[in-house]
Amino acid sequence: MGVKYIPEPFRIKMVETIKVLTREEREERLKKARYNVFYLAGEDCYIDLLTDSGTNAMSQEQWAGIMRGDEAYAGSSSYYKLVKAGQDIFGYEFIQPVHQGRAAEKVLFPILLGEGKYSISNMHFDTTRAHVELSGARAIDCTVKEAADPSIRAPFKGNMDNEKLEKLIIQYGPENVGCIITTITNNSAGGQPVSMANVRETAAICKKYGIHYNIDAARYAENAYFCKLREEECKNMSIKDIIKTMFGFADTFTMSAKKDTIVNMGGLIGIKKNDDLVGKVKVRTISYEGFISYGGLSGRDLEALAIGLYEGLDEDYLKYRIGQMEYLAARLDDAGIAYQSPVGGHGVFVDAKAMFPHIPYNEFPGQALALELYKEAGIRACDIGSYMLGNDPDTKEQLKADFEFTRLAIPRRVYTQAHIDIMADALIAIKERAASVKGYKITWEPEILRHFQAYLEPIV
């Protein structure tokens, strides 16, 4: 293995005890959960890789900020600290806190979208797609072709296919495209980064056709680090300068702050200029989230978020963070296990289609591998494939995803090298018995975001 584990740039002050259930206990838990990992109790998961959202370990500075949080209903000092940090890092005039990323989408998207409108993105994640559809609009993905082939080691597989984007705008009519969204990093495509050049080009297309440009900014710092490593124009820039330059091309951003700001709850909306859109966002925030100076968050949350915005920019931390993914990916390379390569920023997306070529997309190989990981080692992961993609909103037919991934999303500052070795060992063990693994069928599902609630059964 050519990659060494990057030592943690921190010491551990507090620990949380975790336990390992027996194989028989884990199989019983899955049966009771109707083979949906979201129904598993957290305490029954030895290593929890369901998401990197809100599952991070905060620093001593953030915990100190928790004690300093100002709980004033209006105009708390913690709110002003957060606004100042957001303006400093992103260069936007208006910063609106909300309780998480999907809240930002719920507030902003209905202003931009509606019946007969389209949202075009380098790839909509599950909640983003849901909020587009809840507004009455339709979500169109426009990812570069190389993202669909996990074996291709392209530096920016999260990019927008800008040639296709312009064709889609002409096809649907610029007046019918409510917004263009670039997600950084591109989660559904495997945590893959988006280049500065690509964002600049997308912005130019939006300006040409008069279309609103939004950045989904959940993993803004990891994306900037990849740009610094892989893009010539960014090599001598600081992480903060890369972020401010990239966000300068967009009109707005929506953010789940539960990722790169290393907090357990929070989100942001950023608007570049204080115009009419600001007033509309304030009205919807007050209606759905609370007064504008707390946006569904306590003062202590606002304080921790303001600190975390800066902590996520630290290059020593980012080197360690990406290094964890590279270490796990190197172990999978040695074992001949395919994943979306090169490895992304917040997790390893294992190619379940390659692991289980005998399981068709409508029997959900990504979900099958997630369930096998829990059986094997008490690891909870999730499907990023046809199971998550769901049904066509108009025909109700099962959609076929471009890829069938099982995402191992690694929380920030939580797991050690020993835990990552357990992840690799479990995947190697599953590969050895891959031919015997069966797919799954859905026995009940809701209309929207089904993967959170659906019931499944193994196909015998």
Please give a structural write-up.
The chain has 460 residues and is of the alpha/beta class. The chain folds into two domains: 23-52 and 315-458, Aspartate Aminotransferase, domain 1; 60-311, Type I PLP-dependent aspartate aminotransferase-like (Major domain) (Aspartate Aminotransferase, domain 2, 3-Layer(aba) Sandwich). It is 40% helix and 13% strand. It is built from 16 helices and 14 strands. Helix 5 links the parallel strand 3 and strand 4 (138-141). The mean pLDDT is 96.
Work out the number of β strands. Answer: 14
Can you list the strand order of the major beta sheet? 2-8-7-6-5-3-4
Residue stretches low in confidence (pLDDT < 50, at least 5 long) are: none
Can you identify the CATH superfamily of the largest domain? Type I PLP-dependent aspartate aminotransferase-like (Major domain)
Distance between the termini: 38 Å
Number of helices: 16
Quick structural summary:
The protein is α/β, with parallel strands linked by helices and about 450 residues long. The protein has 16 helices and 14 strands.
Quickly list its features.
Aspartate Aminotransferase, domain 1; 2 domains; seven-stranded mixed β-sheet; 14 strands; 16 helices; 460 residues; Aspartate Aminotransferase, domain 2
Sequence-ordered SSE layout with sheet pairings:
Blueprint: H1 23-32, E1 47-48, H2 60-68, H3 77-90, E2 94-98, H4 101-112, E3 118-121, H5 126-134, E4 138-141, H6 162-172, E5 177-183, H7 196-209, E6 213-216, H8 220-230, H9 239-247, E7 252-256, E8 267-271, H10 276-288, H11 299-311, H12 315-335, E9 347-351, H13 352-355, H14 365-377, E10 379-380, E11 382-384, H15 386-389, E12 405-409, H16 417-432, E13 440-444, E14 455-458
Parallel strand pairs: 1-10, 3-4, 3-5, 5-6, 6-7
Antiparallel strand pairs: 2-8, 7-8, 9-12, 11-12, 13-14
Helix pairs in contact: 1-14, 2-11, 3-11, 4-5, 4-10, 6-7, 8-9, 12-16, 14-16
